[in-house]
Amino acid sequence: MAEEKIRVLHVASSLGLGGTEKVMQSFVTNLDTEKFHAAVFSPLNGPRAKLLRQNGIETFIGIDLLPLLEKFKPDIVHLHRAGWPESGSLRPFKLASIPVIVETNVFGHYDPSPDGKIIDRHLFVSRFCAQRFEKINSIPALPPKYSVLYNPVDTDFFAANSPVDRYFPPHTFGRISRADPGKWSTLALGILPSLHQMIKNNDIAPFTYNIIGGIPEAKRFVKEHDFEKYVNFLHPILTDKELSDFFNSISFLAHANDTGESFGLVIAEAMAAGLPVITHPSKELRDNAQLELVDHGKTGLIANDIQEYAEAVKFLLTHPQEAREMGENGRAKASELFRAQDIAAELGNIYIELLESKGFQK
């Protein structure tokens, strides 16, 4: 008789379009099905539920959590959350006596609550988050309680759908985010007056700037300054195929987010598609993992202010060969560090290690 599989329940606050939910989806669909039976719980429905079920993943939505835990009987619960205390949210897992609880700590926060002690492993999504956690809390971010596990990216898919020899549309770049003001920076549009002046001075040719996730303030700025001839606001997308099509419509990614990135999933995906990325540092102790992903002059460019950012855009628009080389360097880095199957295998090893440390056997 075959050995029973290890039962894993991933828990997220919603099944929407955000990066946290996408990472969870990637984990459950790439875990070794010979070893693990993975399912998902969320109190809130969303478009990602359909994608999970299309991949054969059991998905429980909006039901009482404790009865579900008693019925599904997970050996491991994997939480996807910000890391800070959430009153009462961990109590069902404590009552259900879950053998192992793992947390993907999306923003690298600290939960000092008594309930927080039931978490066996906190996974930081970047070295930056782990180092900031250590600095703020004076707690070594080391095993067995802490470790770094990068977010998974389907680099194989992007390599196949955005091949090395693909056509790069000239004079075209883009940005993508949720339509959330918290995902924006003044840099995202503040570069347009400088770029417009460069066109007038014949320093660059007229360009196209494709944007997914435009907010009302951005659309108003573009209209009021008569930049509509340069900027296209596009509809939201959901699947990696749609994302790959978007990446294939631009020649580099312009990332700008004042709150920064605890990982930077869209940056990693653009790298996997062979695109160079322009980004910028965040101030003080804000999320800054975008600088962990983008190596200045190798996989993209890092700009400190609007003028530097505009110059970076100009450089990539006018140096397509160098842009391609940076993009391929980024593709190689993404494949080495973020490949979904490798990250999921590493996660599976962490699960087994934690179960074995507790003497748990199926």
TrEMBL record:
The Glycosyl transferase family domain sits at 201-332
What the entry lists under Gene3D superfamilies is as follows: Glycogen Phosphorylase B (3.40.50.2000)
- One GO MF term attached to the UniProt entry: glycosyltransferase activity
Indicate whether Acyltransferase appears among the record's keywords.
Answer: no
| Pfam (any one) | Glycos_transf_1
Q: Which UniProt keywords apply?
A: Transferase
Designated name of the protein: Glycosyltransferase involved in cell wall bisynthesis
This protein's species is Desulfovibrio gilichinskyi
The lineage, from the top, is: Bacteria, Pseudomonadati, Thermodesulfobacteriota, Desulfovibrionia, Desulfovibrionales
